[in-house]
Design goal:
single chain; alpha/beta
């Protein structure tokens, strides 16, 4: 099944999107940091071949036509609103949602905002319920590596300067991606304002602290059928987050742990595809 690249108008912006499948139940896939919708190019044809219609946008900040300058434009609420605006632009009433890394954080916010009306099933890769993940970010004694990265990300100019000055060194971030995929990621991040936009996700939420400190942050108990796929060797999101997340899961909830790191769709594509398809089939629209 071929993947098509198209542009969609949503929330007053233009999003570059990948699509596959002409009919069937819709599935929206949200990429993480610092990637693009290219991360889904193995999974999308598999879903389409099994009767699903897929939409994978380059998210706000990654699409050239959806790259606001203001850090506040990357709040949880703003990012989650794009999910529903893109669904509307695609004429998706109800849909399945899949997200990885920041795409998963956006998904957790979208679940709360949606209240079970439009999202039929939810699959999160690497990120347990975000309130548990955010708390573990600061409570886990073994989380110094990620806390150090957050300091870089939230300091104006530091992370965006890394891509500009050391693009080849930055390639090692994507330890399991193909050269073609990495070339796309760097091509996008090197566009004017793109790396600052990507880092603005972290700055808008104050390195995940807003979820812990602001009662208005859009997260809470979840009853939508949920699949979490988590790598046991993930250096950034560790086991404590899985444990702390359990208290927020009030509906059907299944956890699949893989012998893998953070980049699950690239490290174990067959297993990820099998688990996602099983979850989708168990929860038809």
């Amino acid at each position: 099944m071929d993947i098509t690249i198209r542009e969609l108008e949503a929330n007053g912006m233009t999003f570059r999107c990948r699509t596959a499948g002409d009919s069937g139940e819709p599935v929206i896939l949200l990429h993480g940091f610092p990637e693009t919708s290219h991360m889904w190019t193995d999974l999308m044809p598999r879903l389409a071949d099994n009767g699903y219609r897929t939409l994978a946008p380059d998210l706000r900040g990654y699409s050239p036509g959806a790259r606001p300058d203001d850090v506040s434009a990357y709040s949880y609420e703003a990012l989650a609103s794009d999910v529903f605006a893109l669904a509307d632009a695609s004429a998706f009433d109800r849909f399945h949602l899949v997200g990885h890394d920041w795409g998963a954080i956006i998904g957790w916010a979208a679940l709360h905002i949606d209240g079970g009306k439009r999202i039929a099933s939810w699959t999160s890769l690497s990120i347990p319920h975000y309130l548990g993940t955010a708390k573990a970010t600061y409570d886990d004694p073994g989380g110094d590596l990620y806390r150090g990265i957050l300091i870089q990300l939230t300091t104006e100019g530091v992370f965006e300067g890394l891509v500009a000055s050391q693009p080849d060194a930055f390639r090692s971030t994507w330890s399991h991606s193909s050269p073609e995929e990495i070339d796309e990621y760097l091509g996008v991040l090197q566009q004017p304002g793109a790396m600052r936009a990507a880092a603005s996700y972290y700055r808008a939420c104050n390195a995940h602290k807003r979820a812990l400190e602001d009662p208005s942050a859009p997260f809470g108990d979840v009853s939508v059928p949920t699949l979490l796929i988590k790598g046991t060797q993930d250096l950034y999101v560790r086991a404590m987050s899985v444990e702390l997340a359990k208290r927020y899961m009030k509906g059907e909830y299944r956890v699949v742990e893989l012998s893998a790191g953070h980049w699950l769709a690239q490290e174990q594509p067959d297993r990820v595809a099998d688990e996602v398809l099983t979850h989708l089939r168990a929860h038809p629209l």
